[in-house]
Amino acid sequence: MTLSILVLLAGVVAFYWFDEDSLPLRLGMVAGGLVVAGAIALDQLVRARIPPVCPAARVELRKWSGRAARTRSRTTIMVSRSPS
């Protein structure tokens, strides 16, 4: 979150730093800083929610390994090869 705040601050500083440039260009700098800061903040929020999902995914993957998975694949092959 700190990085996104710094990027947003950089956009505002750029607005005042380049005071001799045209207003649309300076507003574009602020808007660009806002978009990039929002993307960084969203990315950090998504990454914070991923770790709780990982153990559950591991459990589901384990369900598909071993003897049960071989049995399911053989059953699928037999069903798909059965005559119509």
Give the SSE map.
Layout: H1 2-17, H2 23-49, H3 53-63, H4 67-81
Radius of gyration: 26 Å
Reading the helices and strands in chain order gives HHHH
Number of individual domains? 2
Query: Given the C-alpha coordinates, what overall shape results?
Result: rod-shaped
Total of DSSP H or I helical runs spanning 4+ residues: 4
Key descriptive features of the protein:
4 helices, 84 residues
In short:
The protein is mostly helical. Helix content is 82%, strand content 0%.
Can you walk through the features of this model?
The chain is mainly alpha-helical. It has two domains: about 1-50; about 50-84. It has four helices and no strands. The protein is rod-shaped, with a radius of gyration of 26 Å. The N and C termini lie far apart (about 60 Å). The mean pLDDT is about 80.
